[in-house]
## 1
Amino acid sequence: MDTLFSLAHGFTVATQPVNLLVAFIGCFVGTVIGALPGIGPVNGIAILIPLAFSLDLSPVSALILLTSVYYGSMFGGRIASILLNIPGDSSAVVTCIDGFPMAKKGLAADALAISAISSFAGGTLATIGLTVLAPTLAMAAIHFGPREYFALYVMAIVIVGGIATGNPAKTLVAGLLGLAIGTVGIDPATGIPRFTFGAYELYEGIDFVIVAIGLFAISEFLVYIEQRRSGPVEQVPVGRRSTALRRLTYPATSLRAGLLGFVIGVLPGAGATLASFMGYALEKRVSDKDGTFGKGDPRGVAAPEAADNAAAGGSLVPMLTLGVPGSGTTAIMLGMLVTLNVQPGPLLFQQQPEIVWGLVAALYVSNVILLVLNIPLVGLFAKLLTVPPHYLMPGVVTVSFLGVYSVNQNSFDLLMMVGFGVFGYLLRKLGIPLVPVVLGIILGTPMEQSLRRAMAASGGDVWTLLESPLALALHAVTACMILVAIVREARRRHGEAAAARGA
Amino acid sequence: MNIIAGRRALGAGMLGLAGLAAARPATAFVGPRPECLAPSAPGGGWDFTCRTVGRLMQELQVVDQPVQVSNMPGAVGAVAFANVTSRRAADHNLFVATSTVGLTQIAQRRYPGDIDRVRWLAMLGADTGVILVRADSRFKTLADFLGALKSDPGGIVTGGSSSLGGYDHLRLLLLAQKAGIPAADLKRFRWIHYDGGGPAVTQMLGGHVEVVSTDLAEIAGFVEAGQIRVLGAMAEARLAGAFADIPTAREQGYDVVGLNWRGFYTGGRVSDEHYNAMIAGLKRVYDSEGWKEAARRSGLQPVWRSGPEFERFVAGMVSELRGLSQEIGIIS
């Protein structure tokens, strides 16, 4: 009852006109920022922080502004994924897998509506989780040490292998390429630069955004040029959005992926990207009976969107209760909180309840605003595809250059982006899937770091990895998944062989 | 970025008018376009330093135009350093935010050039290094911890928010040196790097690391909540306010001051006249109520060192960190 009472009080804070206005602006700006390739939630929030200061907003209003931008960009990130096959931010990479094929089938409007609705479902689920479970969950999360994180990332990489369709050997090559790219830069454990060839531009590592935009957008452009040489390129049809709600809502999918996403979001450091991949992989395992995933299955859009929005909510749990950022975005928000004289940490719930509960209530409000804002815009966004490719593609390339330049204001990044574009084109020609490359980059670094931490703590004893019951359990689950996959494959081959003999 | 640029232009217009009305100081702080260079992305620590000081300069009319904050992230400040020393060495419009983190990089020769390539202006505040354990830890004082470390250098898991050889690690080693632990044993310490003080302390609460060395500001909430114990603060004297009962390392017999200070440098060929004017301008910021408030909010202690005194301080710190880094084999 206490919680409900606090939440009711929170709603009186969140529904003050100024806070409603701020939430609306934040949602709108966030959606736009998320939709632009290259400018993700991290940049969006960094851009808006000076605004929050200069408007002299109260801490609650400033926090509401930033979180609604955060949620908004999570909504917006999938727009470019679905329409153009260019992920707007890292957590929208998976949405490309089924979102873009849907758009190619003329179902762009449906895909956008589905992603908005499941984003809403995931976000709301996470907010409920945040309301009810925050302090309990935060205390549970501290039991995740380096060994447990390592086990989690190993599991994630194994699961990811299941996402990719097609040749397993090529998937493996792609994943290893990603892992290799991820090692470039200053090694966080020792501070020593690796594979930088003396170029200072490489010291911070290769920004994920540069790789993603190069691999997806620029290579898409190169493929387009190639196709044009051999004849006119077919225009993607723009269908009308289905009005049947049944075809746009996937409650079971959203619930499964949302719960998973929330739990992953709560673990500091794992974040929305991991959640979106795991959500997709889980859904594929559960529902892909007919092999429709990767070819434009709507559930393949609903699952990652529900998971990444739920993770965004989940990552607020460690931020508010422990003062520990769950992601890059929350790290920046945390810095701003401190300058607003709000000390996040174990005492925040007791000392400044009006901020916490005002924020939680504002999350419910922003989610509704985002849904209401996004559904009517679906038609408008989908119209983008009616632009003929010979106008659209140069526009996409321009936006890509702007987006990448805006990250560091560095022309070296543009060269790298073009380089990755050519590389991506070659990979496409070789039939090597691009998604595992991106995954290797995203998962490789944290996996390596947790392994290094575990080794540093044990003094180099490898067996330490198996000495924690939680880590052992995670590894056991991973081992089971591999076994099941092998048995399935063996049965399939056996079946095929039998069929061949029979025929 | 466009949003900022647009807003800046607007602000520049408005403040330009205000500037005309204000009397122009005899020696201008900087030239026509004051610029604070933050060698980090927007939202980072150096960015915060630039934005806060820039805002105060404007409010205090130290400058007659708004200070433009530009970001040049890369290689922990080395990209900005290279740019300033090679292209903008005589640019008296420019001051660059830095801190102990940047200086550690210079000490370990990770910048293109040594401290004499630039002119060190001043430091305005500092965060304090602390050694932390869980509230239920076996260690009650620094002597307990350092004694245990001395008898079994590889037996205690320590960590903090920097890499091996970073400042959090080095200042723990400085303490250990004062406790008489030989250099060969310093290398045997187990050190886990984290992305910040908060994550390190959370991991400590979960029992994954026993002792954490980091800055106070980020983890102050945990101290107030009573979940962790501060074995010692590496400050020159006891801290003010809520942290007055934290013992310093110095009073426990280990004379180590580990301040993570925030300050500025400018190009190496800036004239004495401009250099002094910049310091005078920064001093006005330091003396203002606004800076005290901003420093308090972000957990910094206001500390002032400038000009030759600051240059000596920087040189002393570099030689100490360089010597230690060589002893433990971080650099040759």
## 2
Amino acid sequence: MINYDEIIPQKIRDIQPSGIRKFFDIAQQVEGVISLSVGEPDFKTPWAARKEAITVLEKGRTAYTANAGLAQLRTEISKYLNNFIHVDYDPTSEMIVTVGGSEALDLAMRAMVQPGDEVLVPEPSFVCYSPIITVCGGTPVPIVMTVEDRFILRADALKAAITPKTKALILPFPNNPTGSVMRRGDLEKVAEVLRGTNIMVISDEIYSEMTYGGEKHVSIASLDGMRERTIVVNGFSKTYAMTGWRLGYCAGPQPVIKQMLKLHQYCIMSSPTVSQYAAITALTSCREDVDHMIEEYDMRRRLVVKGFNDMGLTCFEPEGAFYVFPCIKSTGMTSAEFCEKLIYSKKVAVVPGSAFGASGEGYVRVSYAYSVQHITTALSRIREFLEEMGH
Amino acid sequence: MNKKLLALLKQNARLTNAELSAMLGVSEQEVAAGIKQLEDEGIIIGYSAIVNEEKADDNAVTAIIELKVTPFKDRGFDDLAHTIMQYEEVDSVFLLSGANDLSITITGTSLRKVALFVSERLAVLDGVLSTTTHFVLRRYKEKNHVFNEEHSDERSLVSP
């Protein structure tokens, strides 16, 4: 009989299923759950983009595209980045259209990380970075971010984590799960540490349009001397509510993009053609839809933050993405206990902060990618839950 | 601020001033003042629940009745519209462009009552030339609220 244990390498078997997955299994067993747990927009893709996809299908445009993506799409992305983060990327040599931002992250790490390398991962953060680093033979090195620092990456924490083995830094802002953003001043300090090193930055800016308050998103790539050491990862999923279309992109210096493109070519060939056409329309004709969605998120954000603060679960003010990250330490429960009890007693699903790294313990992630009605119902159930727990 | 306030109230008039103040990033006093102003100016003329009549009352019937009428000299359609407005059964009265002149929505407790209302009350009014009655068979959406929202959220319960 075949021995799968010998076939599957230890490092693959050692990868833990994400804490989110475990919690999903619990949530699914409970009937009638109302969720504040999803990481995708509640809006539908803007109609113009959907219509373009229909038209393209009618015209029979179903073949592969160029490996790096449709030339027109790359040109539009280049214009967009120029306008949005004020960095110039050559659409023909410094850009790849990928299957979601996730593929871009995977490509970047596989192109750069080898056994013995360390990659710095600020935490709490999205769940995919460490497993990819591990599979590449690298070592993920978490850098703890705390609420006292608004969950941003501090320059001194970064400096302390750097060793001669450090290959890259993941910069996940606006951040999932905390909703924190790095403002220009915060990024300047980080850039100061990195300039003159041989460390690359993988800047995961998938939530960049969802930056609230007066100032817009700033990309580290736009700071002095940082373009040459940064891979910018972004995509259409969050900004244009296009999660299911699986379309993202990365932009960066040609010597790295060139290598990433080879990997992309061998494992993906080219990103979904219909999605690419729809994305051109998203970039060229859906600005109003995007502004509307962002305004909605911003209103809900303030509603949810106030809701948690009012019920005594202190919640730092998130300025990005569509998550809030209230602290539940005052209940005396762990994140996992809190979430399990909440789902069993009030049928509300929120995600334990511990699913996003050890430093997320004591917090829960609450998504506000839901209607106001849904949010107010869920909040009142959480309030009841706390009252019943004697909080 | 009042424009956004109005948009929020149109979608859900039961949001509390505290909730509205958080969403709009202004004080509760400002919200209260904004609502009062909208009411005083007659921009908000009332608040009512959007009811799924089929669930509330099995027999309830809603009909849209279109009328062709002769406008009165000097007073146009207003006189007749005002007369029709007086009936309690009448939910709404609109003046339309196009082939018909007035559109009326009425909800009755039975098909027969609606029919009688049309034949005995509306059709006989001075100036009414003809009536066309359309019974509502199913409601899908009203005032931006969807009825029978079964598969509205196809997203997974939990995702990263």
